Amino acid sequence: MHSDEVYMQRCIELARHGLGTAAPNPMVGSVVVYGQEIIGEGYHRRFGDVHAEVRAIESVARPALLPHSTLYVNLEPCCHHGKTPPCTDLILKTGIKQVVIGTADPFDSVAGKGIARLRSHGCQVKVGNLKQECRELNKRFFTFHQHKRPYIILKWAQTADGFIDIERMPGAANRPTWISSERLRMLVHKWRSEEQSILVGRQTALKDNPRLNVRDWQGPQPLRMVLDKDLSLPPQLMLFDNSQPTIVFNQAEEKTKGLIRYVRVPFDHRLLESVMWFLVAEGIQSVFVEGGRHLIQSLADQDLWDEARVFMGTQYFRRGVPAPTLDKAKTTSHITIGEESLFLMKR
Q: Of 74, 187, 270, 304, which residue is most buried, by most CB within 10 angstroms?
């Protein structure tokens, strides 16, 4: 591997530490290299905190080496005043003359302007080192700014014969039908902590009474969201326990009750698009969908998804609710966990 790629790979490794905490900012890592030695490194820890380039530069024990060093960063340095000053100003102030960037920033306030500013002040800037890896790292950020919608992850568990639930009788107890094992639940809670929001439909909320929180992992709680057209869900459901921010999409009213926000949207063919438009306006860059077949299939049919995570258990239901189908899915990996399987798919 070329030395530039080695250092950029380190930037990516550092950046991943910000998964779940940096949003809505991108995940960014940076290293400062003098000769063939990394003399400083850092990453963006959380939204509103100092940026990766600043941490990397400030960690250098001998600042006199900076003008003779190269700064590596997986995403274009910012050149505008946001919650922190422009990183390009600090880079220029230190006298760093060489900067290697993984990929340009799609955010309109940056979008090539940071690269142009560095070059106009005499920096040698190389762009595109491990570009695809850098874009994949910030897939949520890129999807949000380029496609003007959140990055959407579908998740479900299905039996060996292709069902996600049994047929339930009206009035049956509202508890989930477990297909995946308890050890896999920890992985799901880890996934929840990595996304900004989590969405279910009315039937899933009613039948399973889920909490949709992070209990079996350590990390931030996602924004909980449920579709409830006529506000008919019972108030005693755990979704309404006011323990974390929750949005109820409905067609009846707009109000806020504690941490629960009721948002009116049209329940017609534009429903899911309207929900996504609302989330863009709120700055929500990712949605983890744990709904039932109807919600997941509706998103799939409207091409409103980016990846799917599907558990396959060993049970056979023989009959029940069939699993969703993804016509455009490409399986990127297949992992065996004990006797169960995990299929990771993308469009």
A: 74
Residue 327, both tokens? 């016509």
Task: Please list the active-site residues.
Answer: 53
What pLDDT digit, counting tens, does each position of 105-135 carry?
A: 998 888 888 999 999 999 999 999 999 999 9
What pLDDT is stored for residue 182 in this prediction? 76
**How many CA within 13 A on the CB side of residue 62?**
10
Measured distance CA(68)–CA(94) in Å, rounded:
10
Question: What are the angstrom distances between the C-alpha of 323 and each of 154, 250, 307, 320?
Answer: 12, 26, 16, 9
- Quote the DSSP letter at residue 268: S
Residue 34 · residue 64 · CB < 8 Å:
no
- Give the residue ranges of DSSP H helices in the chain: 3-15, 52-58, 87-94, 113-120, 131-137, 139-147, 182-194, 202-208, 271-281, 293-301
pLDDT, position 81: 65
- The strand ranges marked E within the chain are 29-34, 37-43, 70-75, 98-103, 124-127, 151-158, 163-165, 197-200, 223-227, 246-250, 255-257, 260-264, 286-289, 307-312, 321-322, 330-337, 340-346
Which segments of the chain have a pLDDT < 70? 1, 81-83, 169-177
Which ranges constitute the DSSP H helices of 39-127? 52-58, 87-94, 113-120
Instruction: Report the distance separating Cα 66 and Cα 337, nearest Å.
Output: 47
List pLDDT tens digits, range 160-186.
999 998 877 665 555 566 777 777 889
pLDDT value at residue 166: 83
Closest CA to 265 of 288, 247, 238, 283: 247
Please tell me the predicted confidence (pLDDT) of residue 167. Answer: 78
Q: Which two tokens stand for residue 196?
A: 């900004």
Selection from 172, 230, 179, 178 nearest residue 206 by Cα: 172
Q: What is the pLDDT of residue 266?
A: 96
**Which is nearest to 293 in space by CA: 201, 205, 209?**
201
Residue 146 CB-density burial (10 A; 0-12 exposed, 13-18 middle, 19+ buried): exposed
pLDDT for position 175: 57
| Cis omega (within 30 of 0) for bond into 24 | yes
